[in-house]
């Protein structure tokens, strides 16, 4: 049985912790409705779908990515290669494989975002070494808006290399808003920061109207 806190994905209806609605299914239409309204799903296996629009909202300004000296050395010396959308399902699976901690990328979430990729909305950047997938990042692109969902590493700094290359690509394509959803210590160390939700929603509206494509 599904219990809906609200059937409407309206960020103005969020409670004090940012929860907008409970329940429903992760159809492509519902997910796109959420992203266009500044609402995203985040929940654990076995729980109903939880829809969020936190205030403040975490973003990464595309010209403010922090690249440490060590990461700069890694980028200069790395023998890895990167690709776009070559194996998005494998990147999503890699992000879900976290043996040291619980994952929020449930079986339902994996299937939903792989379908989003098939329909042209979810995209990935893969990092390869000797034909092995060692890291990557994926997210949802609409207009000049990119929602970064998750990234993973199987080699040191592979996820950071993926983020750097993705940011470079988004800047070249003319993107204006990179959504991090919720700020963590890790994303803050890379340059992420919080902005008020009402400012985020205005920037989202402008980004969605921009004639930008991922490829």
Question: Can you describe what's shown?
Answer:
The chain contains 7 helices and 10 strands. Helix 3 (88-96) packs antiparallel against helix 4 (107-118). The chain is 34% helix and 24% strand. The protein folds into 2 domains: 11-54, Leucyl/phenylalanyl-tRNA-protein transferase, N-terminal domain (Alpha-Beta Plaits, 2-Layer Sandwich); 58-208, Aminopeptidase (3-Layer(aba) Sandwich), CATH 3.40.630. The chain is globular and about 50 Å long. A hairpin with a 2-residue loop joins strand 7 (132-142) and strand 8. It is α+β, with helices and mostly antiparallel strands. The chain starts with 18 loop residues before the first strand and ends in a 7-residue tail after the last helix.
Features:
single chain; about 220 residues; alpha+beta; Alpha-Beta Plaits; Aminopeptidase
Total beta strands: 10
Using the CA coordinates, give the radius of gyration. Answer: 17 Å
CATH class category name of the largest domain: Alpha Beta
Annotated CATH topology of the largest domain: Aminopeptidase
In short:
The chain has 7 helices and 10 strands. With 215 residues, the protein is of the alpha+beta class. The chain has 2 domains: 44 residues, Leucyl/phenylalanyl-tRNA-protein transferase, N-terminal domain (Alpha-Beta Plaits); 151 residues, Leucyl/phenylalanyl-tRNA-protein transferase, C-terminal domain (Aminopeptidase, 3-Layer(aba) Sandwich), CATH 3.40.630.
Set out the fold topology.
Blueprint: E1 19-22, H1 28-37, E2 40-41, E3 50-52, E4 57-59, H2 69-77, E5 81-84, H3 88-96, H4 107-118, E6 122-129, E7 132-142, E8 145-153, H5 158-173, E9 177-181, H6 185-189, E10 193-195, H7 197-208
Parallel strand pairs: 8-9
Antiparallel strand pairs: 1-3, 2-3, 4-9, 4-10, 5-6, 6-7, 7-8
């Amino acid at each position: 049985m599904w219990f809906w806190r609200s059937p409407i994905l309206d960020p103005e209806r969020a409670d004090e912790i940012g929860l907008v609605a409970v329940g429903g299914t992760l159809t492509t239409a519902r997910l796109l409705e959420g992203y266009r309204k500044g609402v995203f799903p985040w929940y654990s296996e076995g729980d109903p779908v939880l829809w969020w629009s936190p205030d403040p909202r975490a973003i990464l300004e595309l010209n403010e990515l922090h690249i440490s000296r060590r990461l700069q050395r890694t980028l200069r010396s790395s023998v890895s290669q990167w690709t776009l959308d070559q194996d998005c399902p494998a990147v999503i699976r890699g992000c879900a494989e976290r043996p040291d901690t619980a994952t929020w990328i449930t079986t339902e979430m994996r299937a939903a975002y792989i379908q989003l990729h098939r329909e042209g909305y979810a995209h990935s950047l893969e990092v390869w070494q000797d034909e092995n997938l060692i890291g990557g990042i994926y997210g949802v692109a609409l207009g000049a808006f990119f929602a970064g969902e998750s990234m993973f590493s199987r080699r040191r700094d592979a996820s950071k290399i993926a983020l750097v290359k993705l940011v470079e690509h988004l800047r070249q394509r003319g993107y204006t808003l990179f959504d991090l959803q919720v700020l963590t210590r890790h994303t803050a160390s890379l340059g992420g920061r919080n902005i008020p939700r009402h400012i985020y929603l205005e920037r989202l509206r402008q980004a969605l109207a921009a004639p930008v494509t991922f490829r």
